[in-house]
């Protein structure tokens, strides 16, 4: 039962973040206003520039305010990699990961679609249309590790992968439910249970345990190394992939590459229990190398906005955006367009539908 008014936090961030988010907001307004839905937006100026200007990465006070919104639309944060004014890791750990962990974004949802009118680097890509359901709060990214005897010959650095039964169960359940809703109903677990026997068996046993509840879903398993091969040689074999945090991070970058580029890949950081706002963003970063040139591809951000609408219960509106993007890319996908031209064209495609 979807509402008609939502409070949305907008975090445009740095570099091309504000440029692509502006187009996502343009498209959101074009689809929600005719449907009688109001998105009440509050902009939060977080990111590298904000940290340089104020010293705030992400304060508890800001966290509290963010918690009050229905969803977060995020651009990208970060300075150029050679910008020595920003210590490496602070925005990743203290902003992005803090949001994911505090708001319990345990589902990191990354669709990979090869749109007509776009070019895959693969000679025979086939029909690519799959979703990676990546764990978002555990694994090797949980921050469980340390360095002892630092700076000596006997230094020890540990990074311990955390996998809880609770975390794996809620992930696997979500993935099965998603697979059941999709036409092909196929779920592939990707892990490395021949070597990572502890975490791998927890994942495999959890999948085995849930499978009988979803008899119409076909279940498959691939080791992560084999999965990277098939993602290149036969990507159309995949429908829903469920995997841990690190494997999912790597696999989705590869997925972005085979589906024609990082500018088209959206991402949802989802708290499926809805105990805190979920966050929607493009997979790409702030692209300082092209910031200010109006050449950033805004489609990833626009598709992330569609994922946000779907999460809020407006699947119909999300679908309108997805179809408009599809039609737009089919017609104009290979043209040189400025960032705001792409947004305008997609709004026009929406209105023409
Ligand atoms: P990046 O994704 O920003 O850029 C990689 C390459 O892809 C660049 O050549 C860029 O021009 C191009 N690119 C990215 N998005 C594009 C788009 N929409 N249209 C056209 N071209 C696009 O990754 P990079 O360069 O490693 O990182 C730049 C900054 O972004 C760093 O500070 C990094 O930490 C941060 N970052 C932030 C993320 C986030 O906020 N979620 C995610 C990844 C990186
Ligand atoms: Mg990544």
Automatic annotation (TrEMBL):
<dbReference type="InterPro" id="IPR050501">
    <property type="entry name" value="ICDH/IPMDH"/>
</dbReference>
<dbReference type="InterPro" id="IPR024084">
    <property type="entry name" value="IsoPropMal-DH-like_dom"/>
</dbReference>
<keyword id="KW-0464">Manganese</keyword>
<dbReference type="Pfam" id="PF00180">
    <property type="entry name" value="Iso_dh"/>
</dbReference>
<keyword id="KW-0520">NAD</keyword>
<feature type="domain" description="Isopropylmalate dehydrogenase-like">
    <location>
        <begin position="7"/>
        <end position="346"/>
    </location>
</feature>
<keyword id="KW-0479">Metal-binding</keyword>
<dbReference type="InterPro" id="IPR019818">
    <property type="entry name" value="IsoCit/isopropylmalate_DH_CS"/>
</dbReference>
<keyword id="KW-0560">Oxidoreductase</keyword>
<dbReference type="GO" id="GO:0003862">
    <property type="term" value="F:3-isopropylmalate dehydrogenase activity"/>
</dbReference>
<protein>
    <submittedName>
        <fullName>3-isopropylmalate dehydrogenase</fullName>
        <ecNumber>1.1.1.85</ecNumber>
    </submittedName>
</protein>
């Amino acid at each position: 039962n979807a509402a008609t008014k939502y409070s949305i936090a907008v975090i445009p961030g740095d570099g091309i973040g504000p440029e692509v988010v502006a187009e996502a907001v343009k498209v959101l307004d074009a689809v929600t206003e005719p449907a009688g839905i109001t998105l009440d937006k509050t902009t939060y100026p977080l990111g590298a520039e904000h940290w340089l200007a104020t010293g705030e990465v992400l304060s508890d006070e800001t966290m509290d305010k963010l918690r009050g919104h229905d969803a977060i639309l995020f651009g990208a944060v970060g300075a150029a990699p050679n910008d020595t004014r920003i210590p490496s890791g602070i925005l990743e750990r203290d902003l992005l990961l803090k949001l994911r962990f505090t708001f319990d974004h345990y589902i990191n949802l990354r669709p990979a679609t090869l749109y007509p009118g776009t070019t895959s680097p693969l000679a025979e890509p086939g029909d690519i249309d799959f979703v990676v359901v990546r764990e978002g709060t555990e694994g090797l990214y949980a921050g469980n590790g340390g360095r002892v005897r630092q700076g000596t010959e006997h230094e020890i650095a540990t990074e311990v992968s955390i996998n809880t039964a609770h975390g794996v169960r809620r992930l696997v359940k979500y993935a099965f439910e998603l697979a059941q809703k999709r036409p092909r109903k196929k779920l592939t677990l990707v892990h490395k249970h021949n070597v990572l026997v502890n975490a791998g068996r927890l994942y495999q046993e959890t999948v085995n345990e849930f499978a009988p509840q979803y008899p119409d879903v076909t279940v498959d398993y691939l080791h992560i190394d084999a999965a990277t091969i098939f993602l290149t040689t036969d990507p159309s074999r995949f429908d829903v992939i469920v995997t841990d945090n690190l494997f999912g991070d790597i696999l989705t970058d590869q997925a972005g590459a085979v589906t024609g580029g990082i500018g088209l890949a959206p991402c949802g950081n989802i708290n499926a229990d809805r105990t805190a706002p979920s966050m929607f963003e493009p997979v790409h970063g702030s692209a300082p190398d092209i910031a200010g040139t109006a050449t950033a591809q805004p489609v990833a951000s626009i598709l992330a906005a569609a994922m946000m609408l779907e999460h809020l219960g407006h699947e119909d509106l999300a679908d309108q955006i997805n179809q408009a993007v599809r039609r737009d890319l089919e017609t104009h996908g290979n043209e040189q367009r400025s960032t705001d031209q792409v947004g305008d064209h997609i709004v026009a495609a929406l209105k023409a539908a």
